[in-house]
Design a protein that fits this description.
- There is one protein chain.
- The protein is built from ten helices and 14 strands.
- It is of the alpha+beta class.
- Helix 1 runs antiparallel to helix 2, helix 2 crosses helix 6 and helix 3 crosses helix 4.
- The chain is globular.
């Protein structure tokens, strides 16, 4: 059962409507199957992890993913054209094309990522450079619920009567934070290897009802937005412990994600219950919407939501089985795909969740 409203933490809410004009995404390289990935790792680095890796991937139902690197060296950056800001720039271009707009039509560019090309300058500043975008921009250093905080900011920007379209882009290149040789000593890194994927996805937003160009299109409306967290006093479920001012060096030679699987299993169901409870305060439930879009943590989200919350699995959108967990790009990536199949009047409830410090957020989308 979901928590009572009285037990919910303070939540930011807004019913202001935002119009979606376009969406676009980018996946680096060809899809890499689990078998291909594990065979390559074993042969290239002299390991024997295929058996265990397939077990983990099967449990997560991750069959394919896209990677920004070639995994030919233990320490290796992204291949040419697949740097984080380059991927984000392509996603923005595709979203603008979908909206019938150009880069000069945008009033603000907002990026969110946990894996920027550089800590400074911001990743989105490099995106602007790639796009030759001359307007203002800003960036959120956040993973799976970055989409929602970006929407909070976009809503404020679009409230002005003089506002121009706002573009949000989420991008992730987490595969570079991985040394295959660490698989010998840390089984958790093997789970990260088979679970994660790289991607970028973007949306173009305007104030509801405002027409910008004769060629522009209108996809649908975002409303009934909410954002909160249950993280106080809880250990982080997913973290990058080195590389910041607390620990500026990487003891193992490479920045490395730490995944506390037991904590995520313990806190994950409560996190989704909190999101469903926040949606319920708007009168939204699994029975009042046509589709549910949860965070794409794994390819079994439909099964898990049905088990823990009673959401019928046929309503749940899952693409993680084919692209992996793409972090900050995940919601927009699945959203861009989902809206191409929606009919007029159909509704979608996004339920984002982030294990870094157990944040949740979401919105209602109605297709035009």
């Amino acid at each position: 059962m979901a928590e009572n409203a009285s037990q919910l933490p303070p939540i930011w809410r807004s019913e202001q409507k935002i119009e979606v004009m376009g969406a676009g995404s980018f996946l680096p390289g060809n899809p890499v199957s689990t078998s291909q990935l594990l065979k390559h790792i074993d042969e290239t680095f002299g390991l024997d992890v295929s058996g265990r890796g397939r077990v983990y991937a099967d449990k997560l139902n991750i069959r394919n993913r896209h990677l920004c690197r070639d995994l030919l060296e233990p320490l290796e950056g992204p291949r040419a054209g697949h740097r984080n800001p380059e991927m984000a720039a392509v996603a923005v271009e595709r979203a603008l094309e979908d909206a019938g707009l150009t880069i000069d039509d945008i009033g603000y560019l907002i990026g969110h990522t946990a894996t920027p090309a550089t800590p400074i300058p911001s990743n989105v500043a490099i995106v602007a450079d790639v796009l030759n975008y001359k307007g203002p921009h800003m960036e959120l250093r956040q993973a799976c619920t970055g989409f929602m905080n970006a929407l909070v900011i976009a809503e404020g920007l679009l409230a002005s009567s003089q506002s121009k379209p706002v573009v949000i882009v989420g991008s992730e290149t987490g595969s570079v934070f991985f040394d295959p040789n660490r698989l010998k000593e840390d089984a958790g890194q093997l789970v990260n290897l088979v679970q994660m994927g790289d991607a970028a996805a973007a949306v173009v937003l305007v104030s509801a009802g405002r027409n910008y160009t004769l060629n522009s299109v209108h996809k649908g409306l975002i409303s009934k937005k909410f954002y909160g967290h249950i993280g106080n006093g809880r250990n982080s479920g997913f973290s990058l412990k080195s590389g910041g001012s607390d620990v500026p060096t990487a003891p193992g030679g490479i920045l490395e994600f730490s995944h506390e699987f037991a904590d995520v299993r313990t806190n994950g169901p409560e996190l989704f219950h909190a999101g469903l409870s926040a949606a319920a305060e708007y009168g939204l439930s699994t029975g009042t919407v046509d589709k549910i879009l949860p965070h794409q943590a794994n390819g079994l989200m439909d099964v898990l939501l049905e088990q823990h919350t009673g959401v019928p699995r046929e309503k749940v959108i899952v693409n993680a089985s084919e692209v992996g967990n793409t972090g900050s790009a995940a919601i927009w990536l699945a959203f861009a795909e989902a809206i191409t199949t929606m009919g007029q009047g159909e509704t979608l409830l996004a339920l984002g969740a982030e294990a870094t410090k157990y944040m949740f957020g979401g919105f209602l989308y109605e297709h035009c």
